[in-house]
Fold this sequence. Notes:
Blueprint: E1 5-8, H1 9-12, E2 13-17, E3 27-33, E4 50-55, H2 56-61, E5 69-72, E6 74-75, E7 85-87, E8 95-97, E9 101-106, H3 114-126, E10 134-135, E11 141-143, H4 145-149, E12 152-155, H5 158-202, E13 209-212, E14 217-222, H6 229-235, E15 245-248, H7 250-254, E16 262-264, H8 266-271, E17 276-277, E18 282-285, E19 287-288, E20 293-295, E21 303-305, E22 309-314, H9 321-329, H10 331-339, E23 347-348, H11 351-355, E24 358-361, H12 364-407
Parallel strand pairs: 3-8, 15-21
Antiparallel strand pairs: 1-12, 2-9, 3-4, 5-7, 5-9, 6-11, 10-11, 13-24, 14-22, 15-16, 17-21, 18-20, 18-22, 19-23
Amino acid sequence: MKSWEIKSLGDICEFGNGLWTGKKPPFQKVGVIRNTNFTKDGKLDDSDIVYLDVEQSQYTKRKLQYGDIILEKSGGGPKQPVGRVIIFDKKKGDFSFSNFTSLIRITNPKTVDFTYLHKFLFFYYISGATETMQTHSTGIRNLKFDDYKDISIPLPPLQEQERIVAILDEAFAAIAKAKANAEQNFKNAKELFESYLQGVFENKGEGWEEKEFGDIITTLTDYHANGSYKILKKNVELKDTEDYSWMVRSTDFENDFQNDFRYIDEKGYNFLSKSKVFGGEIIMSKIGNAGNVYLMLKVNIPYTLTMNLFLIRLNEKKAIPEYIFQYLKSKKGEIQIKSRLLGMATKTITKDNVRNIIIPFPPLKEQKIIIKKLEALSSETKKLESIYNQKINNLEELKKSILQKAFAGELNTKINVD
Length: 418
């Protein structure tokens, strides 16, 4: 690294703020790059570029050029810091960038390769370094731009920058291929499970019945069965800190019970007597993600149902909850549920429409056999998912390691991804 220099980003680049809404003619139709056009791997996704009529005076100062780097300076969320970067790689057309993004343009292309700089800033983001230079007081994260301009860039001679980029491009292509193979293998495993599940309900044997869901339901209730909004507000306080009872939400299921839980005190739990959950029940979302179905776990603490969910208990002399759950999650079950959803923008499902879902089911003995086979196949699928997820995580860590070596001057040979 003897011939390498260390420069601040502000020393080698100029910056520009994005477009805002303007009303002074003349106007010009321009493709505007937004946060939604940033991919996780630092590339421009041009599948949904929005085209707007903008003030021509604004656009002339903010026209994108091939090789510009676009920085996400605002947006993000609680778990996604801002600071993503993409290269503008279009040589034709009129394009600019939104006010939630900023332009980074190299002032002397003879000393700095834009792909080299982009890869460094991409590494800076995925390493978590931008998290220390942003604020997020209103749910929107904002990058401290002055801090970002002070980032130190290791700069070898231009020829060495180009050599590093070539090695990184080859390594990243191999990593992308390995990730795609892992994802396809996992997709194949999931499709095998789905195929078996579908076959169960298409190849019905002797003794099978078809009944409306309501005929085998003993309890169909929800949070609001306990009283009016006014009474509920008076008696139940939802808390972020641990207390007597856990309140089950659809997000708990969606996040595999890895998110922050919500709680209520003992008084609230006893008041919600009609929506207490004991485990083994079928839970269905009734608004928003209406029709999503979950099977309640059994845990050794008191817990109850939050709003926007139905709690369903079955006559277990006729049907096993695990079997009905698998049917409702199958393609045939999903089609029935979706056909009963109401509303346009916000979907809902009523108790009556839940009850009239048609359920095919064999005798209890056969239901148990089916569930046993499905559980064994599901277990194998989850093992494969764990293996493939670990492989993908390892590949992402490998990418970080390669980038770290590249900018430390330690990338001397081609990288073996296998």
